[in-house]
């Protein structure tokens, strides 16, 4: 019997959005979803916004399964940079 252990990867980063700092929480999914991160953030009313980012041709892209606010979509390249920076530090 072979047991494979994978490291749980999660981190939090502060990103400036519309002049305010917002806390984005990243969690890497394992198993068959190896190339996915889930990301969550609170909007101005305290509601959680959840979305996924998937690696596509050497770039992390937002997987649009729902309508996301423009301020999230505009930060896609920032999220890519944050994920890549974290993965290099492992």
Brief summary:
By secondary structure, the chain is α+β, with helices and mostly antiparallel strands.
Model description:
The protein is of the alpha+beta class and 90 residues long. It has one domain (10-81). It has 2 helices and 5 strands. The chain has helices spanning 70-73, 76-88, and strands at 10-17, 20-29, 36-42, 48-56, 59-63. It has a 5-stranded antiparallel sheet with strand order 1-2-3-4-5. A hairpin with a 6-residue loop joins strand 2 and strand 3 (36-42). The two termini are 28 Å apart.
End-to-end gap: 28 Å
Structural class: alpha+beta
Mean pLDDT: 92
- Major sheet strand order: 1-2-3-4-5
Number of strands: 5
User: How many structurally independent domains?
Assistant: 1
Can you tell me the overall shape? Answer: elongated
CA-atom Rg in angstroms: 14 Å
Helix content: 10-25%
Biggest sheet, open or closed, and with what strands and sense?
5 strands, antiparallel
Lay out the secondary structure.
Layout (H helix, E strand, L loop, with lengths): L9 E8 L2 E10 L6 E7 L5 E9 L2 E5 L6 H4 L2 H13 L2
Antiparallel strand pairs: 1-2, 2-3, 3-4, 4-5
Features:
single chain, 90 residues, alpha+beta, five-stranded antiparallel beta sheet, 2 helices, 5 strands, 19% helix, 43% strand, elongated
